[in-house]
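Two quick folds needed for the group meeting slides. Do the first one here.
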Amino acid sequence: MPVKKETETTTAAKKTTATKTTRKPTARKTTTTAAARKAPASNLAKENARHIEENAQEIKNNASMIHLLYGAIIFLLLIIAGLAFYVGQMVSKNDVPGWVVTTTTAEEIIVTVIDDARCSDCQTSEVLSQLQALPYLSSATFVRQDFSDSGVSDYLTENNITALPAIIFSDNSLNDAGQIVPYLTVLPDGQYSLALGAKFNPFASRSDKWFLVLDDMSEIDAIKADSVIDGNPDAAITYIEYSDLECPFCAKLHNDGTPKALQEKYGDDLNIIFQHFPLDFHANALPAAQALECANEQGVDYYALIENSFDKYNNNNFSLDGFYDLAVELGANKDVLTECVASDRYKDKALAQQTTGQNVFGVTGTPGNALINNATGEYEVISGAYPTASFETIIDKMLAE
């Protein structure tokens, strides 16, 4: 085995070193005799040269011994590290009696997935498959329930769960290297919830077409009054995109051509409204939102600037200075633009739009796409850069008699 060979080599080296370093110098090496004092100068020189050579050799031998000592220390440290790893593994498997620190094994974890058969795009089966494929959950017990099952509605109410699919872990002691545990939220009953793709509210009132319904259309009127509308202001359908100019998924949605394709298909029956949703972890999102409003103040084509920006910055490479340059290409004055952004004149507006998206439509990320029937107040939210066909299915259903 490799460790045995290394041990033998080290032992052999030590023996060799002992042979070289245990010799003691004789009196002749360290003491000048009377005969030597009487010897001619040439003999003294030879004697001194020999002494110097022998001392140099001894220094070399000592250096070799030091190197070997260092090697032995490193070898011992490796052995200690290996033992520490072994003990750690035993502790994690509860094989060492008397240890206080223990970790729940996968066999003891129960993962309960609650969905609703009425949700057409919850993708619960896909989420469940991904969880079951994780190595540290391969032995866990998975239980799947529907909102219509007995007791499920009461359980969700008692634990303040209002969006499905709900993924409930019986314990949060997982050997997952921080992949899931940091995102688990403790529930009132002591279990843990993983909010993964939860967006369907099973308690919300719905129309005959199974759309959510706005209680107050004045909220949509307020959004329109404070926004740049692309298309017919009186269109039957309004598509509100909650977006972040630094978001690569928002860029994908635009670069895939979804907004343009919808405008071409529905014409005057559809208008589009871009709303700001600056994410906290995008450093330039809020300044960029303000820059877009500042550019619009100068008469720059609002939606052309958005499209140009998503076209150029589509892969986590957004540049605020580059965005300024794009605005200048469309007619903005850069000095006026930067002064406007520095003043924070549109900061509150951008943040207010984000709050409205959260409170009215339940948007939690970008792109958050809300499709609204202006006549009935029916609406549906598509979270993410879904294909154009997903939008068309909803719009067609909304427009159908």
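Then this one, please, same format:
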Amino acid sequence: MNGQIALLGSGEYLPVMEPIDRYLLDGLRLNGRKPRVVCLPTAAGAEGDTSVDRWIAMGLDHFQRLGADVKGVRITDRDEADHPRWADLIAEADLVYFSGGDPLYLYQTLAGTKAWAAAEQAWGRGAAYAGCSAGAMILARYIPDIRSLGMKQVPAFGKIPAESVIPHFDRMKLWRPMVLTTARKRLSGDRFVLGIDEETALVGRLDGEWQVMGQGRVYIIKKREEFSFSHGQTILLV
């Protein structure tokens, strides 16, 4: 059975997101052993060692405090994404966690690699997947290029039925309103865009209900209508 998915608008590894990460860890069936967590800073791979080191350190500290056996997976380019040592580590994980950064870089680094195949293998046997910002965006059908105000988009992994995921949604509506306008124009029929506010997550399974968790709201945006949901409310993504 495919594991849970957590789509986070922002806040990875911060105290405000601890209840969400505890929920993911508590949902694993581990027969009393420690959960194995892998933290991937891949979306920040083009930002340099300082940024990558910071994300790894934050992930290690965060999940160690939550009682997990956690490893940093330093995949920053396609060569590393195809290295068997990382693929084996990811495939054995109980929670695969992608922190934020550049979604286009993240997708282009992972697509067709051993690392992504291992993440799918882990998720397919019941491991949880958590993606913050860029890590959430790559699961939709398309990734909008925020720098081009959404005028350009690239195909993504298409694991969830949303056309695209827009994280930092509360800030994005003010900072880049054209991204949403452009995304909405492309929609037809029942197609939709997911908007996820900062410090907020949408958690669920592909074959069941999804729950909003956190301080903000989650939005389902269609061509001519929009629905918003707050903490504790459930959504069906179809």
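Slide caption for protein two: The chain has a mean pLDDT of 94.
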